[in-house]
């Protein structure tokens, strides 16, 4: 299946079709919202195959990258000041704190930090300890339903020694924010395939009403180039609609069960995005009847949202204002081996993608 989406002949045909559609004195600016798109575009060198006037701009779809510095530092304080077990996805291990430490370093110092592949792994950890277990819940609509499933299971099994450090966010408000930015001129969005598999197509309808082309895309070279072609068709016509170019995974209504589960346990809240600030209604918090599982309340955690990493321009990268290579720390002070900012750490981070595969 994958081979046919990496087929060179199909890629060549699509490049010819793109060339035909290309109005050469026009600049096409398409934002790939999802970090997996960013990685795939860099990995397969797709930018280098496209005409120079078609720009693929990275967006804010890497959950680790958009998490605020204050929250990252608060996690480290929690680890150091309490006898807890931290359960986390691997992506967060190397994210640096303000003083250069990370969870990886803290684990080597003896703090109990465990990598999980599913939130449900937390259940087994909790059943085999008397300690408090804190799950670092992070991600967009794709990974939030499993966190909700964890909370439901904790209730069902009457497990009390688990709480969630909730950093989950949702897509609609941040897309709206980008669309209304004065200095980020975007013609259309390469809409995230994974998120769309949960939310469905309707998420993007406000964007097309505001005059943006929207194509939901898969992640292989043929997927992405076909999506670019479809975006160009909308822009050239001046007519906009939500086109689903990832029909093998994304259904019109998404995964309604997952969305229902998510909103049974969580509700919308304001959220702080790294380098951007607070976006109203763009985050999630536990509903009142699940507050016993809120690590912030259980451990009296205060987050200082004013914190930032001096010199790191992740915020500008995430909003498509600059390319990663425009950051003066790129490739010298900040590399994947010794990352200074989160966009260089995450496997979905734009800076890591540019470093590994080139722009
Ligand atoms: Fe931040 Fe490093 Fe990217 Fe610069 S290169 S924006 S310091 S992550």
Offer a concise description of the structure.
With 359 residues, the protein is an alpha/beta fold. It is 37% helix and 18% strand. Helix 2 (35-43) runs parallel beside helix 16 and helix 8 (144-156) packs across helix 13 (256-265).
- Percent of residues in beta strands: 15-25%
What's the Cα radius of gyration? 21 Å
Strand order of the largest sheet: 2-1-7-8-9
Write out the distinct hetero groups bound to the structure: iron/sulfur cluster
The N- and C-terminal alpha carbons lie at a distance of 28 Å
Main sheet record: 5 strands, parallel
Residue stretches low in confidence (pLDDT < 50, at least 5 long) are none
Do you know the CATH architecture of the domain at 65-169 and 254-298?
3-Layer(aba) Sandwich
- Level-1 CATH class name of the domain at 65-169 and 254-298: Alpha Beta
Counting DSSP H or I runs of 4 or more residues, the number of helices is: 16
According to CATH, the homologous superfamily of the domain at 65-169 and 254-298 is HypD, alpha/beta domain 2
What's the helix-strand series? Answer: HEHHEHHEHEHEHEHEHHEHEHEEHHH
Q: At the third CATH level, what is the topology name of the domain at 65-169 and 254-298?
A: Rossmann fold
**Average residue-wise pLDDT:** 95
Identify the overall geometry.
globular
Helix share of residues? 25-40%
Structural class: alpha/beta
Count the strands?
11
Structure description:
It is a single chain. This protein is α/β, with parallel strands linked by helices and 359 residues long. The protein has a domain at 65-169 and 254-298: HypD, alpha/beta domain 2 (Rossmann fold), CATH 3.40.50. Helices cover 37% and strands 18% of the residues. The chain has a 5-stranded parallel β-sheet with strand order 2-1-7-8-9. Strands 4-3-5-6 form a 4-stranded parallel β-sheet, with helices on both faces. Helix 8 (144-156) packs across helix 13 (256-265). The radius of gyration is 21 Å and the shape is globular. It starts with 7 loop residues before the first helix and ends with a helix. Residues 312-314, 317, 324, 327, 329-330, 334, 340-341, 343-344, 351 line the site of iron/sulfur cluster (SF4).
């Amino acid at each position: 299946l994958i081979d046919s989406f990496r087929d060179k002949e199909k890629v060549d045909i699509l490049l010819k079709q793109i060339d035909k559609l290309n109005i050469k004195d026009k600049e096409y600016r398409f934002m790939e919202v999802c970090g997996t798109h960013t990685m795939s575009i860099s990995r397969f060198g797709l930018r280098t195959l496209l005409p120079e006037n078609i720009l693929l701009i990275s967006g804010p779809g890497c959950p680790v990258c958009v998490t605020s510095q204050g929250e990252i530092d608060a996690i480290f304080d929690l680890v150091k000041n309490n006898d807890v077990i931290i359960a986390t996805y691997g992506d967060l291990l190397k994210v640096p704190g303000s003083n250069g430490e990370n969870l990886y370093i803290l684990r080597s110092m003896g703090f109990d930090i465990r990598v999980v592949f599913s939130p449900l792994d937390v259940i087994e950890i909790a059943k085999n300890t008397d300690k408090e277990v804190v799950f670092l819940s992070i991600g967009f609509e794709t990974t939030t339903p499993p966190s909700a499933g964890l909370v439901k299971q904790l209730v069902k099994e009457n497990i009390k020694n688990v709480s969630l450090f909730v950093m989950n966010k949702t897509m609609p408000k941040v897309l709206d924010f980008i669309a209304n930015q004065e200095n980020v001129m975007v013609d259309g969005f390469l809409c995230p395939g994974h998120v769309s598999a949960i939310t469905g197509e309707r998420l993007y309808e406000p964007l097309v009403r505001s005059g943006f082309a929207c194509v939901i895309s898969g992640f292989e070279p043929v997927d992405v180039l076909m999506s670019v072609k479809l975006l160009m068709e909308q822009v050239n016509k001046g007519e906009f609609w939500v086109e689903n170019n990832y029909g093998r995974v994304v259904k019109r209504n998404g995964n309604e069960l997952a969305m229902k589960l998510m909103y049974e346990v969580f509700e919308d809240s304001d959220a702080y995005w790294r380098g951007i600030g607070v976006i109203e209604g763009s985050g999630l918090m536990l509903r009142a009847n699940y507050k016993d599982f809120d690590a912030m309340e259980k451990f009296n955690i205060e987050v200082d949202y004013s914190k930032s990493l001096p010199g790191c321009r992740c915020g500008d990268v995430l909003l498509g204002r600059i390319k990663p290579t425009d950051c003066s720390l790129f490739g010298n002070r900040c590399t994947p081996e010794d990352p200074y900012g989160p966009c260089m750490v995450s496997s979905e981070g734009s800076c890591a993608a540019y470093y590994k595969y080139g722009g």
